[in-house]
Amino acid sequence: MSIKRRIIELLRAGDFLTAHEIIDVLGLDCDERCVYKHLRHVARSVWRCSGGRERLVMRLPYCRRCGYVFTNLEEPWKPSKCPRCGSRLIEPQRSL
Fold first, then answer.
1. What is the pLDDT of residues 22-70, one digit of tens each?
2. Cα Rg for the chain, rounded, in angstroms?
3. Which of 26, 53, 74, 75 has the greatest CB tally within 10 Å of its CB?
């Protein structure tokens, strides 16, 4: 089974997961950037294959220090620091 198919099955069966948790559960030999790349394709595939009835849902990343929510994300990625307070304590986005 392909990595994308394994990710789709994992997200359908589980709870919201971070990219790092997806790597751990599936035992993937790649980094978080690779998972974010796969999630972009997964989002399109799920939407297209379901005829628009299903979609990839994501909890947006936020700053643990000031609470800033990264609402301007077009695609999944991991922000490095908060634009409001400069903190690097970023809670990563989670996918379902």
1. 999 999 888 888 998 999 899 899 999 889 888 888 889 999 999 999 9
2. 14
3. 26
pTM over 0.85: no
- What stretches of the chain adopt beta strand conformation (E)? 58-59, 62-63, 90-91, 94-95
For 69, phi and psi rounded to 5 degrees?
A: -105, 130
Per the CB < 8 A criterion, the answer to whether 56 and 46 are in contact is yes
Largest CA distance in the chain: 43
Model pLDDT, residue 74 = 74
Measured CA to CA in angstroms, residue 73 lies from 54, 62, 86, 87 at distances of 20, 12, 18, 18
